[in-house]
Write a structure and sequence with these properties.
Elements lengths: L5 E7 L4 E8 L4 E5 L5 H10 L3 E6 L5 H4 L1 E3 L2 E3 L2 H5 L5 E5 L13 E4 L4 E4 L2 E7 L8 E5 L2 E5 L2 E2 L2 E2 L9 H11 L8 E4 L8 E2 H7 L8 H8 L8
Parallel strand pairs: 3-4, 4-7, 7-8, 12-15
Antiparallel strand pairs: 1-2, 2-3, 5-6, 9-10, 10-11, 11-12, 13-14, 15-16
Helix pairs in contact: 4-6
Length: 227
């Protein structure tokens, strides 16, 4: 296990998105997780720290995480990042079709694939539910969870491509099996900047359902309001 990891959490945009830079400070290489909104800020942060962005990791392809048009906003994203840095783009294979125009720079990944960034190993954890290709990134004892798991809540499952059944299994099986000591780093600042999976297992109601039917009775209603 490495003794040191480069990790920056940057809150950007009106939807309180968290963008992450994570990498190996010895190799001076990092990846950007869900680069969107203020690409100059992301690139400048890495440059100030003498880190080269070599990849863009996509938790899911909603416009507030990858760029595009949303609610009348023109959001800079992955395309604008690649205009400034030479990087590969890593997206789950289930959402490859939603990222167009990146050619050989786009890499399809699947559950349990890994990416080496210097000495650092990043593991792709497929967590469908919010979208078919939603994925989290496990970096040693840190989990960047995108819109799968927030502090005290979880991502919406009433959007096109969402699946509340898959979200139930992502929360109660795929993520539940990870260590309680795992640091949780969510995709939005909806309940805070960080937690641990242990805290979420104990206090997050969406991780505490013991039956799929009960979970669906809640997720199928109108009480889920977080994007």
């Amino acid at each position: 296990m490495m003794n040191e990891i480069y990790l920056k959490q940057i809150e950007l945009g009106p939807m309180q998105n968290f963008v992450y830079l994570v990498g190996d400070p010895v190799a001076k290489q990092c990846v950007a997780v869900d680069p969107a909104w203020e690409i100059e800020t992301i690139v400048d942060t890495a440059r100030r720290d003498d880190m080269a962005i070599v990849g863009a990791l996509i938790t899911h392809t909603h416009q507030d995480h990858v760029g595009g048009h949303l609610f009348g906003l023109d959001i800079p994203g992955v395309a604008e990042l690649l205009e400034q840095v030479k990087a590969k783009v890593y997206v789950h294979k289930a959402e490859r079709e939603f990222l167009k125009g990146f050619g050989s720079d786009l890499v399809k990944v699947d559950a349990n694939d890994t990416l080496q960034v210097g000495r650092l190993t990043i593991t792709f954890v497929h967590t469908p539910g919010h979208t078919p290709g939603s994925q989290c990134f496990l970096v040693e004892d840190r989990l960047i969870s995108g819109d799968t798991l927030f502090i005290g809540s979880c991502g919406r499952t009433d959007l096109p491509g969402s699946d509340p059944t898959e979200m139930y299994y992502s929360l109660t099986q795929r993520l539940w099996k990870l260590s309680d000591e795992t640091l949780l780093l969510p995709g939005h600042n909806y309940g805070g900047a960080s937690s641990t999976l242990g805290n979420e297992k104990r206090s997050n109601p969406f991780m505490r359902f013991t039956s799929l039917g009960d979970f669906l009775s809640v997720m199928g209603g109108s009480r889920i309001v977080l994007p």
